[in-house]
Write a structure and sequence with these properties.
elongated, alpha/beta, 6-stranded parallel β-sheet, about 45% helix, Rossmann fold, 2 domains, 4-stranded parallel β-sheet, about 15% strand
Length: about 325
């Protein structure tokens, strides 16, 4: 999301990474985005000190970025905007991070808080963040022609999971849904794209069900467009979400989506019109929606057409970039005045 945004507004951003993988930094540099990798708070503050004469606006992402960015903005009296992608307070440390994030967003130093979904903005309002500083700007995609679809032989149907293999993304719930379906439908196959701490446990479940040849875990993937061209359905089985980029990518690429109605997903998907929604954690309902797509190819075509229209009209990056520009201008003007 951040890389797409930088490319949509060339020359207007410098990205400071905190302890980022080298390949991520290289990806931004190869795309022509000015960026710097910082190892900890001291290096980050040194970078901000170097550019303070330009009076840059700081836009932070994620917990550590907000804490460090807040300190830098306070020291150098710089405007500060926080982007909130969602909260996953599944353990004591993450609950502490969530609480601190909410407290920092309440402070006057944070001029604007941009949420990628209305459900996230609602949490911030409930925590006492002033409604006047909150704004919802969903994620968006640049214009792109859909890749040619690959047709499977022998009536095969490939269902995909894309995301980190960790509890909040619900890979276990994906298997709860797919294992019984695969056992009933011999031509149904699934692929789980991503990596994470639950990979070994997921593989053990697949092997125990005797589906090692039909549900695969190929790991993290760089070329998602080629995978999108192969998928017949994307399943989003997350326990918590913001506005998933993979949801928008599937809509753009013509892949029908079946998902739990969590986070910002119901803001995007209208059940039965441009995708299919199940109640959060309702695995049986998710399975019935998948079965409905298998049984009714005509419904698939209608969902895909409407999903593409929704993405183009409401989640088009050039339009959303203009909303971001207005946020930046307003926050910077407050500091000047």
């Amino acid at each position: 999301m951040l890389l797409d945004h930088c490319q949509a507004t060339p020359g207007q951003h410098r990205v400071l990474f905190l302890d980022a993988p080298a390949q991520l930094v290289a990806r931004f540099r190869e795309a022509g985005v000015a960026c710097q990798s910082c190892q900890g708070l001291v290096q980050l503050l040194a970078q901000l000190h170097q550019y303070r004469g330009e009076r840059p606006l700081i836009n932070t992402h994620n917990f550590k970025g907000l804490v460090f960015g807040w300190l830098g903005a306070t020291l150098w009296r710089l405007p500060l905007v926080s982007t909130q992608h969602g909260f996953t307070p599944s353990n004591r440390k993450q609950r502490l991070y969530t609480w601190l994030t909410l407290q920092l967003c309440r402070t006057p130093k944070v001029q604007r808080v941009v949420c990628v979904a209305e459900s996230i903005a609602a949490l911030l309002r409930q925590a006492g963040v002033a409604a006047g500083k909150l704004q919802v700007i969903p994620n968006g995609l640049p214009q792109a022609a859909a890749a040619p679809r690959r047709v499977h032989g022998n009536g095969q149907w490939l269902v995909g999971y894309v995301g980190r293999l960790s509890r909040e993304k619900g890979p276990d719930l994906f298997l709860d849904t797919l294992i019984p379906l695969c056992q009933r439908h011999p031509r149904l196959q699934a692929v789980m794209l991503g990596d994470g701490p639950e990979r070994a446990a997921l593989q053990a479940r697949i092997d125990a069900a005797g589906l090692g040849e039909r549900i695969s875990l190929p790991g993290f993937q760089h070329d998602m467009r080629s995978w999108m061209a192969r998928l017949d359905t994307l399943v989003i089985s997350s326990r918590t979400e913001g506005t998933p980029m993979i949801l928008l990518e599937a809509m753009q690429e013509g892949v029908p989506v079946v998902a739990f109605g969590v986070g910002g997903i119901p803001d995007v998907i209208e059940h039965g019109r441009n995708g299919l929604l199940a109640r959060p954690l309702a695995v049986d309902e998710l399975g019935r929606h998948l079965q409905a797509l298998l049984d009714d190819p005509a419904q698939v075509a209608e969902l895909v057409a409407r999903a593409r229209q929704t993405q183009q009209e409401r989640y088009h990056l050039p339009t959303l970039a203009r909303h971001w520009a207005q946020v930046y201008q307003g926050a910077a003007q407050e500091v000047v005045t």
